[in-house]
């Protein structure tokens, strides 16, 4: 037998890869989960092997926040149609936040060519936010929010003043995105302060994972986050807000056997002539209120 036909060698090779790799049978029960999958997802092998991949483990979602496990699961299509697929999705980390990943799925065939399962690999798609995450790590600890490890409001104000000064001198446009966790106080009253802290951390990490190169993300208030979007005008900013808030909506935590989450609303404001920090943020707060009212009206219908 060739060394490459030895299953122990094959498992060792798969386990040594930095990307996440897992194998499923025709019913999508997980039969193998490598070390890369443990590192990226936070789920250990013994927690997932034997379970179906759709049992609220990775819970892949798209940029609109819609879960694709039942409608467009890459593994399901590989098993059903023999398709080789690649998708850009968000997976659910064990701690609750969302991570952008590139997912590739392929069918597994036996010697007769029959599909007997599927394999999926996933790797973090963080090239767009590498610069921002590296910069966050250079901030003095006194300017980091202790819960989310994003910049705190003091540092957010510093960055806003820099952007405003640059706009006044060079007319380089930018927009701000203000995101709020809905009813956080009520959530804390019902589930406790620790559950609230974990939810804030999950939303904050999700937002930190969505920033593009040169974007900025920080924690603005107890239930609010700020993103600064360079080069983004008033037409494009709401589209980004819709996308990011939808992804943040999918952040959740495991708490005493329950899956807890909260809605995330957003407001936008684009820099104007002779703008001040206070005026810019006041418009963002007004926009936040308008979007929240529209969401409430839609829910009422």
Compose a concise summary of this entry.
The chain folds into two domains: 3-125, Beta-Lactamase; 128-300, Alpha-Beta Plaits, CATH 3.30.70.
Written overview of the protein:
- It is a single chain.
- With 301 residues, the protein is an alpha+beta fold.
- The chain folds into two domains: 3-125, PAS domain (Beta-Lactamase); 128-300, Alpha-Beta Plaits (2-Layer Sandwich), CATH 3.30.70.
- It is built from ten helices and eleven strands.
- It has helices at residues 7-16, 35-41, 45-48, 74-81, 130-138, 153-170, 184-191, 193-210, 237-249, 277-300; strands at 20-24, 30-33, 85-92, 98-109, 115-124, 174-181, 216-221, 224-230, 252-255, 258-261, 264-270.
- Helix 8 packs across helix 9.
- Residues 127-134 have low confidence and may be disordered.
Task: Name its key features.
single chain, 301 residues, alpha+beta, Beta-Lactamase, Alpha-Beta Plaits, 2 domains, 5-stranded antiparallel β-sheet, 4-stranded antiparallel β-sheet, 10 helices, 25% strand
Total tally of structural domains: 2
Distance between the termini: 66 Å
Radius of gyration: 22 Å
Helix-strand topology string: HEEHHHEEEHHEHHEEHEEEH
Count every beta strand, where a strand is a DSSP E run of 2 or more residues.
Answer: 11
Oligomeric state of this protein: single chain
Helix vs. strand class: alpha+beta
Largest sheet features: 5 strands, antiparallel
Tell me the helix content. Answer: 25-40%
> What's the CATH topology label of the largest domain?
Alpha-Beta Plaits
How much of the sequence lies in strands comes to: 15-25%
Identify low-pLDDT runs: 127-134
Shape: elongated
């Amino acid at each position: 037998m060739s060394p490459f036909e030895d299953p122990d060698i094959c498992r060792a090779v798969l386990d040594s890869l930095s990307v996440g790799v897992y194998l499923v049978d025709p019913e999508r029960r997980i039969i193998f989960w490598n070390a890369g999958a443990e590192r990226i997802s936070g789920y250990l092998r013994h927690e997932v092997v034997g379970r179906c991949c759709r049992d609220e483990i990775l819970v892949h979602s798209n940029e609109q926040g819609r879960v694709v496990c039942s409608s467009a699961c890459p593994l399901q299509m590989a098993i059903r149609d023999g398709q080789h697929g690649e998708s850009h999705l968000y997976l659910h980390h064990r701690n609750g936040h969302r991570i952008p990943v590139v997912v590739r799925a392929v069918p597994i065939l036996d010697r007769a060519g029959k599909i007997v399962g599927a394999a999926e690999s996933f790797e973090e798609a963080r090239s767009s936010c590498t610069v921002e995450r590296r910069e966050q790590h250079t901030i003095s600890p006194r300017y980091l929010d202790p819960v989310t490890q994003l910049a705190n409001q003091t540092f957010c104000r510093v960055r806003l003043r820099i952007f405003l000064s640059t706009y006044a001198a060079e007319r380089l446009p930018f927009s701000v995105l203000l995101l709020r966790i809905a009813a956080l106080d009520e959530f804390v009253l019902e589930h406790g302060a620790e559950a609230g802290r974990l939810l804030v951390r999950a939303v904050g990490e999700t937002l930190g994972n969505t920033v593009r190169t040169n974007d900025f993300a920080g924690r603005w208030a107890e239930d609010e986050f700020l993103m600064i979007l360079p080069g983004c005008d008033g037409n494009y900013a709401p589209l980004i807000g819709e996308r990011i808030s939808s992804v943040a909506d999918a952040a959740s935590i495991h708490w005493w056997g329950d899956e807890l989450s909260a809605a995330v609303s957003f407001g936008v404001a684009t820099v104007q002539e002779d703008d001040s920090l206070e005026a810019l943020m006041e418009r963002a707060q007004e926009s936040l209120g308008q979007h929240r009212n529209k969401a409430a009206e839609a829910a009422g219908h």
